[in-house]
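Hello Y.,

Per our agreement to keep a running log of every chain we model this quarter, I'm adding this entry. I've kept the format consistent with earlier entries: sequence first, then predicted structure.
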Amino acid sequence: MGFGSKWLKWIEVCIKTVRFSIPVNGEPVDFFASERGLRQGDPLLPFLFILAMEGFDSMMRIATQNRWIKSFQIGDRIGNGKEISHLLYADDTTILCEPEAEQLNYIRLILILFEAVSGLRVNWGKSSLIAVKEVPQIQGLASILGCKVEKLPTTYLGMPLGNKHKALGIWDGILEKAEKILSRWKAQYLSLGGRVILINSVLDSLPTYVMSLFPIPPIVIKKLDRLRRNFLWKKGKE
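Predicted structure for the entry above:
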């Protein structure tokens, strides 16, 4: 990609000098080096991911420009729209196309070429083919890629996908998670101040991610408030 030798040396040093230590039976063991990959949360990770996926992005753009893959169009149809063929987020990739065997064969070819060039591998065990509308031949299309079939609604990157905008089912996972967290906290002795801190720092942040896309219904707010009150005042006044 044209990077200088000094820059490459910096990246190599940042990766090879990292050491890890993990607790075994409650005690940290000696530090050891990583054989592959980066540690979780490494600030280099998103930059290296972007560089690694540049080749895939280029191949997808060529495929859409030649109409081998027909992407998803948003906006109007008089030249002001935007075509989206793929989305990259962290280590997750979403490809959008029409349910045609020819297009999926092109996608499979692109992925094979990308694997050969980059050394990365597609995790087909975690990959899914999801149809937006009814597709009778969905199983046959999935066999081209060798992945499983999923149906909408589902969950993608922790966000409900395919649900109705105001469906209460969107918030079931948030309520269940809040109840599990509170059940663990109730087993511990916590002062009133400690319970307030936990509510403000942990419980109140649970729905924030989903709220960035979906408006939270009043009934869900009431349920969350009831959970908060029951946990806060479980031992009466202090």
